[in-house]
Structure formats: structure tokens, C-alpha cells
Amino acid sequence: MPRNFCGLRLFFALMVALVTRDSSDAARDSRTAESSDSVTVVIDAGHGGHDRGGIPGQRVAEKDMTLDVSQRLRNVLSASGYRVVMTRDSDVFVPLPTRVAIANSYRNAIFVCIHFNATQRRSAGGIETYFYSRDSLPLASAIHRLVVGGAPSSNRGVRRRGYYVLRKTNIPAVLVECGFLTNPTEAAYAQTASYREKLAEEIAAGVRGRNSVASASFIDQTRVARSERHSSKHSHKKSARKKRSSSKRSGAEEASAQ
Predict the structure, then answer these.
(1) How is the chain classified by DSSP, letter by letter?
(2) 105-131 core/surface letters (b: 16 or more CB in 10 A; e: else)
(3) Distance CA 100, CA 83 (A)
(4) Residue-wise burial string across 222-255, b where 16 or more C-beta atoms lie within 10 A, e elsewhere
(5) Sign, CA torsion 246/252/256/258
(6) Is the dihedral of CA 110, 99, 203, 150 positive or negative?
(7) Domain residues of the chain, as ranges?
(8) How many angstroms from the chain centroid is the CA of residue 89?
(9) Which of 1-5, 26-30, 84-88, 121-125 is predicted with the least confidence, judged by mean pLDDT?
């Protein structure tokens, strides 16, 4: 076989190998981009504006902490290639239906709501993560596992409950309670920039790993919530009956006195 023909065969073989490798690299890069660029993360900083969050007399305003963590989370996720949408990016009040409408306006998206807890019992502490729809459990499990693993607070578990922003969203949605601002120790942590940055990084890691973490066991509080609503309605009806009965007795007594 002529030497120049052998050289041509070798040249074409090398060209095919290079094209194949470039195609493989492009496909891998495409898959990497698809895992982040095509996913929109809607971040919801709880409360805002006239709604400070927490309980009356609480020293640390929840709305400030949630906004700061949310903005840090946006920065971390954006650096990882995710498209990020904020329901609020300043100290303004956004009604719950508006927050849900923003989340539902995006396809192939996930919704992460940032909150801090509060109670009259100063010793109460810990981190808990809420979800409602079953397709939100993997996201809740991943975020909770990483946040709890990177925080000094106790683990209050993953919980299922029908909060409005979880119940009304059509995409995977979670609500992260990042600790108790009424607990002196946890409030001190929350007021440090390094800790808020750590929370943002761990939540972001949970978003990235949402499809690789086994779903956690959870506490189902939906029945408790329904029972509370039923009890509240029952008490309201009972109170109304008492008022009507009291009014009738009062009328009868007035008539008798006249």
C-alpha cells in the first residue's frame, strides 16, 4: 500500500477521534448545563414590610434574617448556574397569593421559602423543614439533611403540613425554618454573617443534591392542622350558640322585668 495513502488513513482516523471526543464533551457539557441552567429556583424570603414575622416583642426581626439568607442563597445558586427568581428582594410586603403566583408562573422550577421560628418558650430550638406535596419530599429531605448537618442546632425533623405557600404551589416546594430567633443562642448565631452564609450554602447544596438523597421519614402534621381547623370551627359555632342563647335569655329577662 502506498505510503501517502497510509498517511491519509491515519490522518482521517485522528480526525474522527477528535470529532467524537468533542461531541462527547459537548454532550457532557450540555447535560451539566441542563442540570442547573434549565432549572429555575424561586426563593421566597418570609415576611417583609409591615410584617416583621415572629411573635410580639421579639427583638430580632425575622423579616431581616430571611431576606439576608435568601439573598445569599441567590448568590450561591446563581454562581452554580441556576436561574434564580426572588419573590422579594427588599424590605417590602408581598401577599401570600402573589408569592404563589410567582412560583407557579415558572416551569421546571422549585420553590424554597426561608423562615425562622419563634415561640414564647425561650429554650425551644432546632431546625425543621416543611413540605406538602409528595413530589416535594426529596427536595425537603436533601435540604434538611444538609442544613442540620452544618448547623449547631438540634434536628426537629422533616414535617408535612399544608401551609398556604406549600399547598398552593404547583411545583416542588419547601419551607425551611432556620432556627428560633427567640432562643438566645440561635438568635446570636443568626445575627452573624458567617452563619447566614453557611445556611445559604447548605440550602444550595440541598437544591443541587435533591435527586441524589434518599427521602427522609417525616412527621405528618396535616391531620393535626385539619383537626385544629375543625376544633376552631366547632368552638366558633359553640360560642355563637352561647351568644344567641345568652341574647335570648337577656331578652326574656328584660321583658320579665318590664
Answers:
(1) --HHHHHHHHHHHHHHHHHHHHHHHHHHHHHHHHHHTT-EEEEEE--BTTB--S-TT-SS-HHHHHHHHHHHHHHHHHHTT-EEEES-SSS----HHHHHHHHHT-SSEEEEEEEEE--S-TT---EEEEE-SGGGHHHHHHHHHHHHHTSSS-EEEEEE---HHHHS-SS-EEEEEEEETTSHHHHHHHTSHHHHHHHHHHHHHHHHTTTTSPPPPEEE-HHHHHHHHHHHHHHHHHHHHHHHHHHHHHHHHHHHH-
(2) ebeebbbbbbbbbbeeeeeebbbbbbb
(3) 18
(4) eeeeeeeeeeeeeeeeeeeeeeeeeeeeeeeeee
(5) positive
(6) negative
(7) 37-220
(8) 16
(9) 26-30
**Residue 219's beta-bridge partner residues?**
159
Instruction: Kindly state the average pLDDT of the residues 62-71.
Output: 98
Asked if 122 contacts 93 with a C-beta cutoff of 8 angstroms, the reply is no
Global model pTM greater than 0.85: no
Q: Sheet of 83-86: strands edge to edge?
A: 83-86, 40-45, 109-117, 173-180, 127-131, 155-160, 218-220
Write down the residue that cell numbers 427521602 correspond to: 215
Higher pLDDT residue, 147 or 237? 147
pLDDT of amino acid 30: 33
Average pLDDT of every residue of the chain: 81
Rounded Cα distance, 65 and 99, in Å: 18
Q: Provide the residue count of the chain.
A: 258
- What's the CATH number for 37-220? 3.40.630.40
